[in-house]
UniProtKB/TrEMBL annotation:
Signal peptide: none annotated. It comes from Mycena metata. Gene3D superfamilies: B-lactam Antibiotic, Isopenicillin N Synthase, Chain. Coiled coil: none annotated. The keyword Iron applies. Keywords: Iron, Metal-binding, Oxidoreductase. Transmembrane segments: none annotated. This is Fe2OG dioxygenase domain-containing protein. Residues 179-284 form the Fe2OG dioxygenase domain. GO terms for molecular function: metal ion binding; oxidoreductase activity.
Length: 324
């Protein structure tokens, strides 16, 4: 296959269709994107535009707070890195000198408007256990963030069966491995970079994502994200209104013994204005072992990765990135 020059766009209008031909077409498109690119856009994903608008407004309010207010919910104060990470506190690329972004991370909790604590991320999270932390002076921030979180979570749950079918596995292969929503959302703000940019200090240094897949919302119209193809060329992934980026992460790469590819990417904000983005890192339950799927291992393709639980893997990556 020639190195990709653009990221494919997949229309999700038929995602819940009972028409088997339409669904098969969708699975074939996903299979191609997962094996050849590791990235694709989705359109007609069903999340209303107002949800993104509300979350963006809440993010702007939060990141506009004085630094000392944001540091009250810093991720050094919580188990497992929930909360605020200041500019340059993370470093995704081991050859880099820090990521020029600030962020806010949280995991599953029930929707705000549903009075239920049936499923909480802390019960079954083992090594990754730890509750969310929220800024008390902005109650609307939690409401808006959780509203989008649950929309993205629902979309992610619809994608797992398609990934299973693309791997010739039973449609429900991931169902018993994704019961407890090991899905972390990170709200990100990238200040603009001007003039000569030191390659070691960019918005987010070259990295792969760690979970099964990421659902990434980018603020429309601002170019920043780039994806590395097999010829080591950086391909722009423009932020097109109405789309989300889906990219595969290391958990699926490990599970599929690299049949599905977890592709290196980075972001640099040279737009001159602030940029906001929101990845939702959708993982498998933290107690699940990332053992290679039998059909992905052969004499020609021996198992590449040591078997480790998802929780150990994610915790190790977080520690390496934040150094605490
Ligand atoms: O902000 C972006 O476009 C990319 C963010 C990203 O790659 C990440 O947080 O893993
Ligand atoms: Fe990423």
């Amino acid at each position: 296959m020639a190195p990709f020059k653009a990221i494919p766009v997949i229309d999700l209008s038929d995602i819940s269709s009972s028409d088997s031909t339409a669904r098969r077409k969708l699975v074939d498109e996903i299979k191609h994107a997962c094996t050849e690119v590791g990235f694709f856009y989705v359109k007609n994903h069903g999340i209303p535009p107002e949800v993104f608008q509300r979350t963006l407004a809440a993010m702007r309010q939060f990141f506009d707070l004085p630094l000392n207010a944001k540091l009250e919910v810093e991720n050094t104060k919580t188990p497992n890195f929930k909360g605020y990470s200041p500019v340059l506190s993370g470093n995704n690329d081991p050859n880099g000198a820090g990521d020029l972004q600030e962020g806010f991370e949280f995991g599953f909790e029930p929707p705000v408007d549903r009075d239920s604590a049936v499923e909480t991320s802390t019960v079954n999270d083992g090594i990754m256990a730890g509750a969310n932390i929220w800024p008390t002076q902005l109650p609307g921030f939690r409401v808006a963030a959780l509203e989008y979180y649950h929309h993205a979570l629902n979309l992610g749950r619809l994608l797992f069966p398609l990934f299973a079918l693309a791997l010739d596995l039973p449609e429900d292969f991931f169902a018993d491995k994704t019961k407890h929503s090991a899905a972390l959302m990170r709200l990100l703000h990238y200040p603009p970079q001007f003039g000569e940019v030191d390659d070691r200090v960019i918005g987010i240094g070259a990295h792969t994502d760690w979970e099964c897949f990421t659902i990434l919302w980018q603020q429309p119209g601002i170019q920043a994200l780039q994806v590395l193809n097999s010829s080591k060329e950086w391909i722009d992934a423009p932020a097109t209104e109405g789309t989300l980026v889906i990219n595969l992460g290391d958990e699926l790469a490990r599970w599929t013994n690299d049949v599905f590819t977890s592709t290196v990417h980075r972001a640099i904000n040279r737009s001159g204005v602030r940029r906001y983005s929101i990845p939702l890192f959708f993982g498998t339950d933290y107690d699940v072992k990332l053992e290679p799927i039998a059909s992905c291992v052969s004499a020609d393709r021996p198992a590449k990765y040591e078997v480790i639980t998802a929780g150990e893997f994610i915790k190790g990556r977080l520690q390496a990135t934040y150094g605490h």
